Amino acid sequence: MDHTEMIFQLILHGGNARSLAMEAIALAKNKDMAGAKNALAEAGEELSKAHQNQTAFIQKEVSGEKTELSMLLIHAQDHVMNAMTIKDLASEFVEMYGHIHESKGAGV
């Protein structure tokens, strides 16, 4: 995989993870807790793939192959970091909605 393709993989997996995390929030809001947890798990898998690409960049640099810093690479890293943050927040929202739905179901 060449440099540009690796960058686009970061964007792809970061974007997928962000979308799945946002989907998890919507599912939890609509009382589909199983679906929300599944979407969070899928978001985690996408982030894992992005992390593998990041690791490949780091390994290349450690072995002496400099990574060309470009706006596209910065953009890709931004996507991944944003997705990580959104996924963390989505996990909290899913848990919160779970508690809300449980308490409403208990007549509280």
Detailed description of the structure:
By secondary structure, this protein is mainly α. The protein is 85% helix and 0% strand. The protein has a domain at 8-59. It contains 3 helices and no strands. Helix 1 packs antiparallel against helix 2 (33-62) and helix 1 (3-29) packs parallel to helix 3. The longest helix is centred in the C-terminal third of the chain and has 35 residues, at 71-105. It is elongated.
Highlighted features:
about 110 residues; mainly alpha; 3 helices; about 0% strand; sugar transport; PTS_IIA_lac/cel; PTS_IIA_lac/cel_sf
* Straight-line N-to-C gap: 55 Å
How many beta-strand runs? 0
Strand proportion, as a percent range, falls in under 5%
Number of separate helices:
3
CA gyration radius, whole angstroms: 17 Å
Overall morphology: elongated
Q: List unreliable stretches of 5+ residues.
A: none
SS content category: mainly alpha
Main β-sheet: number of strands, strand sense, barrel status?
none
